[in-house]
Amino acid sequence: MSEIYRITVPCHFGMEAVLKREIYDLGYEVDSTDNGKVTFLGDAEAVVRANIFLSTTERVLINVSEFTAVTFEELFQNIKSCEWEKYIPPDGKFWVAKATSINSKLFSAKDIQSVVKKAIVERLKEKYHIDWFKEDGPEYPIRINILKDKVMVGLDSSGVSLHKRGYRPKSGIAPISETLAASIINLTPWNKDRILVDPFCGSGTFAIEAAMKAAGIAPGLNREFTAMKWDNIISSKEWNDIRQEAKELINTDIETDIQAYDIDENILKTARYSARNAGVEKLIHFQKRDVKDLKHGKKYGFIITNPPYGERLEEKENLPKLYGTFGECFKSLSDWSAYVITPYGDIEKDFGRKATKKRKIYNGMIKTDLYSFEGAKPPKRSRDAGDKQ
Q1: Do 109 and 44 belong to one domain?
Q2: What is the mean pLDDT of each run of 10 residues along the chain (389 residues)?
Q3: Containing structural domain, residue 187
Q4: Among candidate residues 19, 104, 96, 26, the one with its CA nearest the CA of residue 59
Q5: pTM higher than 0.90, yes or no?
Q6: What total number of domains does the chain contain?
């Protein structure tokens, strides 16, 4: 019988419910939910599926242990008591990739990393009967999170953060991460049969993530993961089989109405390049267009966007006019919904209405709000007589 792990997947604060729904859709049981993370139960195959299919998590961690520690001696002894030989082979390269501490007695990240490394070495020296580890084999990065003296020890199966899907040029900088964009899209009722417009598309993240969702393209399909070399935990066959399954789920032969506008042609070139890399270029209509020209002849569409924040002083002075124009255009879109992530506080005034909901979200290090302006739902299509029961 396959070993069952507790698997922790961190997410943006406030998006835990969205991530939980993704986990349930994969067929796994959620064990617990905390601020900014969800833990579920699954085997080695679940680690693979989570990395390839989850669109709203930053990484996939195998929980090695959880305990309380208020001294470095307690930290050392608890870490040493973990069964590290189950995870790290004699030639494995292991290190504490990151240590975080909030409201805890142990707060020095550097000291935490040093003590944890030393404790693991001592454990493995006893188990493997060797005094020196070459660490020239597969990588096993470890992450330590301490919150109110409770220590969570995780083995990082992802490596590079999962927001890096592999479709964006290496030099490209996105104003919003792929995982946050996917989380916001999944928070809305939008689906591939509905209109989606991003009038400030920038590098195209919202449009690309929506198109990938519409076409059934797994977010992690075209990238590498640290755990792909963990032959002692996950077989290469599992990686190959699940990747093949993901490929078979793709359907780009669909009709979509996803539109992405920006006034900067150079940025649009990067967006088109990324869309092409993601395999969704034909599903998105990119166009150079000013927000003042935002209009659409159909009802019940969606705007999902991340407008300029005005980080430079001259840009900040232009924000009232920009959002005022945006608001006037939105008023003319009958029964549309808008989801806008911004730190700009006067958007409700410019839209001429209170937001249906407002959520506090950090976009990187910037404190923003996600404003939801929900429009009317389209009427349900009448069923054919043959469908009536």
Answers
A1: yes
A2: 92 95 97 95 98 98 98 98 98 98 97 98 97 96 97 98 92 82 98 97 96 98 97 97 98 97 95 97 97 95 93 74 95 96 94 95 92 93 43
A3: 178-216+250-373
A4: 19
A5: yes
A6: 2
